[in-house]
Amino acid sequence: MNSFGRIFRISIFGESHGPAVGIIIDGCPAGIPLQEADFLEDIARRKPGAKGTTPRQEADEPVIHSGVFQQHTTGSPICIWFANQNTRSADYEKQRDVPRPGHADFVARVKYGGFEDYRGGGHFSGRLTLPLVAAGVVAKKILQSGETPIQVRARIVEIGGETDIEKGLEKAIAAKDSIGGIVECEAIGLPIGLGEPFFDSIESVLAHAVFSIPAIKGIEFGAGFQAAKMLGSQHNDPLIDLSGRTATNHAGGVVGGLTNGNPLVFRVVVKPTSSTPQTQHTLNLASGEIEPFSVKGRHDLCIALRVPVVLEAVTAIVLADFMLLAQQSHLIWSSKKEASN
Amino acid sequence: MNSFGRIFRISIFGESHGPAVGIIIDGCPAGIPLQEADFLEDIARRKPGAKGTTPRQEADEPVIHSGVFQQHTTGSPICIWFANQNTRSADYEKQRDVPRPGHADFVARVKYGGFEDYRGGGHFSGRLTLPLVAAGVVAKKILQSGETPIQVRARIVEIGGETDIEKGLEKAIAAKDSIGGIVECEAIGLPIGLGEPFFDSIESVLAHAVFSIPAIKGIEFGAGFQAAKMLGSQHNDPLIDLSGRTATNHAGGVVGGLTNGNPLVFRVVVKPTSSTPQTQHTLNLASGEIEPFSVKGRHDLCIALRVPVVLEAVTAIVLADFMLLAQQSHLIWSSKKEASN
Amino acid sequence: MNSFGRIFRISIFGESHGPAVGIIIDGCPAGIPLQEADFLEDIARRKPGAKGTTPRQEADEPVIHSGVFQQHTTGSPICIWFANQNTRSADYEKQRDVPRPGHADFVARVKYGGFEDYRGGGHFSGRLTLPLVAAGVVAKKILQSGETPIQVRARIVEIGGETDIEKGLEKAIAAKDSIGGIVECEAIGLPIGLGEPFFDSIESVLAHAVFSIPAIKGIEFGAGFQAAKMLGSQHNDPLIDLSGRTATNHAGGVVGGLTNGNPLVFRVVVKPTSSTPQTQHTLNLASGEIEPFSVKGRHDLCIALRVPVVLEAVTAIVLADFMLLAQQSHLIWSSKKEASN
Amino acid sequence: MNSFGRIFRISIFGESHGPAVGIIIDGCPAGIPLQEADFLEDIARRKPGAKGTTPRQEADEPVIHSGVFQQHTTGSPICIWFANQNTRSADYEKQRDVPRPGHADFVARVKYGGFEDYRGGGHFSGRLTLPLVAAGVVAKKILQSGETPIQVRARIVEIGGETDIEKGLEKAIAAKDSIGGIVECEAIGLPIGLGEPFFDSIESVLAHAVFSIPAIKGIEFGAGFQAAKMLGSQHNDPLIDLSGRTATNHAGGVVGGLTNGNPLVFRVVVKPTSSTPQTQHTLNLASGEIEPFSVKGRHDLCIALRVPVVLEAVTAIVLADFMLLAQQSHLIWSSKKEASN
Question: Which residue out of D117, D158, D229, D285 would a mutagenesis test of the C interface target, given it has the greatest number of C Cβ atoms within 10 Å?
């Protein structure tokens, strides 16, 4: 449930206001140079501080507890761990009976029978994306270690309906409200044939991982929802050379569930942060009354701003797993040779 | 790779022009009334014959090979099997070196080293959705066997950009081209708390399964991509009673990855059928030349027309699996009682 | 539950007296020459007919339903199927309320609420080892396709406490009773390093698969239970050359859960066939009385005689899976090179 | 690879001389009372100090990093963590090129390309059984929370061929050598029907988990290897009442892969500790010469002495997982009722 992957396999743990959050990476090959400093760049990209992001400041210092020796991966599980320090749990204890609109508060309470850690969203918190980013750093190293390095890059393409991101953000600030956005991710350098028909299609496994990022409510590949309006002769991407290159890329680099050698392109929608500064109404579970509700705690106005590095991370995690799985193709080719003799 | 599910687990096999296609369902509880006739209604809904669908006619007669005894499930794996009869493989053998635009022909050839069964798309064929529909019938029985029956229903909401479906279809017929569409699926009667935070969120697992349906290129839950344009105070669904009902359903029935007791609502985009009647261009792998290409074989003009029953099936499969997993919550409650003493 | 393996993954289905038994093999590389005739040799080794085996004669003709095209594997799931023909179900229907001692009749009835197919042991029947043998044939091909072919061979080493097998068998015939035995399996040619520390040790995964063979009640590697009587200086196998060869092989070719390049050697104990010709006593579930019981149906006197080819099959299945997983080590070495620069 | 279980799922990490060892437990129900003190009793049972055990003394203080709130489990992953303190790594660095006989040193070096953490056995160390014991404590709580509490208890039954354990131990001390033993485990209170035919038989899954304990080289259920010498009429356990009780228990409580309501009984063999005080010979990988070798570091003379609590732990982990899986049977029974109407 809190694990993902087949060869390169991650398991996350922790709560927003507990002692720590962390991740175990199992199945990482031995011999990859790795030290704590390697995580800092991507961690910094996820950090709040910019306009529209939460004022909660955490040190976010990664500590490697296992799986690394003499600054290289050993092939054993890598445990990366982050202490929680800057927590203000009292904010949450007061509102225990007033589930925040748009949050998991109410459903978590029902699912776990009232035993959930409700402080700051507990295990449902976006803080859990921090260890995901750390695992993404390791996955990116695997992707870049092959003969053809694979690059994964995500960026915001729309906020509040505006492609001028600054403008979309100003809209939210003016409205004193949170706001949604769209993030696009691209991976280049992928070989042909990653993925499987049906249940382990590239789209299936990527979507599975991507929807684990809080606030994502949709994903589309290539032309995506625009494809509904297109004719087949428009949407089909004609093959133009033996390397698999196509004249267009409406398929977003995936055909029949497999990578086709063109850039893998997909977009995700990020809903507006549930914790809006606006006064809302919700049910008081103790009184049974609808009552006005104002957000306590410190929150992002536009969580989409912090999604790109997380989206890159889960994409890299998925692709690294597929690349490690694809190593078995060596056998295919030796069999093939035999067959053609 | 060709299996899916944790408790209710399916495995598909077969090729479009091989002897048969089929599915094994493992983990189905014993005692569910089941016989071959039960599959016919949903199979008929998937059948071609209507305007815009392929003229290939198959008997599609389900044969149960195992797991059913005296017209009830036994708790052992259920193998459901369909013979392929109406195949015209010669159509495909001629075009072996001319990969069809938009199809998996080229990538499959690279991935499998030329050993793939290329006739009619082989294992990549939409014909494999037939056993999926059969498994969906069994899953629906599980969903309907509880105290609160769960209903899953999908319908086309848009073809070629038109919500008047007939009009969208005429557009394709007039253009002598294939066309895309949007299908919406709704599940009602779900309890609160199905799903897990992070990797097994309802959205994650549903998206995983849904992208295994050929031609699906995007999925969105609730307000979906519209959420990118919304403010938090608009998107948040206020809780209005202790049953979990909310005033609006922009979340599509899923919060924090868990069902919230409201209808589960999502939409998928179906790309235009790759096999359009239009002349296209593609690469001849033998000559290395770009050449004109006309579709052989018998195909759908608008595959979206046949998607609803398949989408219902994979949705029911996913939800049945979650429901069987959720049985463990009994233990939660007994523990809870103990804790409160 | 009825599936096993990570890359090379099998799923079995069928009942002793149902229409068929069969298996799906997923994850088999493309390009391996395969046709129905390839199964016949191992199927013949499993067949009854020799002294001490059941008189039930089945054609055991394998039919390939998918995953093979032009006599080579395609990389898609391979479904191999065997019709059941020679069934005499009436034998079983009469004794429905009289669970056979040593069989799964009673526990299956409780587990499945009376819906189990009780004829001939249903899904618990030893007949399900037939598709396992078929999958073993495919696995052996994978093992033999590498540069160093891997050979798996099992043989009976003891029957009824006698290493002279004939003598052990005569003992059973004289006693008009069924009898147990010990089967030893050896795999040679394995590379160093297959397996994982802890949960996927070679011993763990092999034992998991081996205990799926009906009637197996114990497994030991190398010196096995004798190790309990040994001193460390006796049991330790001294390394004698850089290829990993050791002077002795008390470890049975596995150290720390990993293959060490020496022959993999293990033994399993096969309990006496539950269906003995002797009159026994059991509980009549309808009357609640203990009553004398005589076996109906046709059975083996010494099922151990038919175990070797089945044991080879599951061993080959496990080792093929480990070999396909080990392909990822290529990446390890390229990383290593980089690290040493 | 370092994870195990389907519902109650554990993932271990850490190395003998790294910063820490630990475990994540996923899938544990919410509401179970749990605090650090609960681990101490079983941890103490695993601790060295008695005659024949290592003088290395570790504090072994468990720290809960996640998944517990207000002294109850929350339903989120539980991370339990132990600092390593009393390490003397210099012992190991000197002997880098002299693989210890009977240890994983050589195979680990080959498998991980020289990047493994070789200090104190690294990730292969018996120290990793400490977090297993911790997970076992949680599993035992689940087993004891039902209406019929399930008890798991293991004990040494033989050391060095002696059932008088003290005598076996004196033998080793006199010989200045390490020595092997046999440990028996029993679980009582199990319901009928846990386990699955074939790949998830109780024996399969238990053996899988048990072989993850270092130094285990064999497992047998009930009569075990003695069954090879028995006749069917001797081995069969006659059913004597409707609760499933049998007159004898040669099956060790498992028939057809399923629990039958009688005590689950199995024995494992523990090989003599590889690190014997005796001088041995091994290969110097640098010089290529065979040379005498004496153990450095601090080690157990009879590791079997510390196995019982570890064996209980993995057994409890496996049984808790089966119990949580079995909750789905509720649905079976409701279907059954419907069917009988």
Answer: D229
